[in-house]
Amino acid sequence: GAGVSQSPRYKVAKRGQDVALRCDPISGHVSLFWYQQALGQGPEFLTYFQNEAQLDKSGLPSDRFFAERPEGSVSTLKIQRTQQEDSAVYLCASSLNPARTGGNTIYFGEGSWLTVV
Amino acid sequence: DAKTTQPNSMESNEEEPVHLPCNHSTISGTDYIHWYRQLPSQGPEYVIHGLTSNVNNRMASLAIAEDRKSSTLILHRATLRDAAVYYCILINYGGSQGNLIFGKGTKLSVKP
User: Fold this and answer.
1) Among A18, A33, B31, B89, which is most exposed with the fewest C-beta within 10 angstroms?
2) CB environment A59-83: b (16+ within 10 A), e (fewer)
């Protein structure tokens, strides 16, 4: 497809389990973002990649969260030892230009819905 | 990035225009005004953005006050599909990393 693709769409994990969420950005997009959205809240920034470089990881809530984009295209968000407060929608987004380009348009995927039980 | 203030919710009737306000009294001269919306169970989608002048595209119009301390997103004829949360976001590309910082937005309901 032409848009940002995320998988799995839905994931139920037992507390303490590790999960991996995949993002396929739009082809050729330089920038890739991960956001976390709790129920009833706006999305919150987690981390940003420009190509393969992780330039900002200030939003990752703990060292249990890890993201990578080794070849500058597909990205994986990994959550180790999941806890109930990790239950949220994880949104991936990409843009053609570097994030600090004026008027940069960001395109979002539909999200991966994680429920930790 | 400067803060924005939006009403929590608004209602509209189908096929009528909708004016969604956003206040940003601390906006700086280099802050861009972006609007995104999020339909139920979807990721956010870009609507429109502007810097100083009013902007039009196929989805909406953006009216920016002369002093830039407020702006209004205009949907010319609301449809049921326009029911969503609308986010007004300021980005200072020179002073920030350029990522979107979402507030709570305005939840728009459209009545048939």
Assistant:
1) A18
2) bbeeeebebebeeebebebebeebe
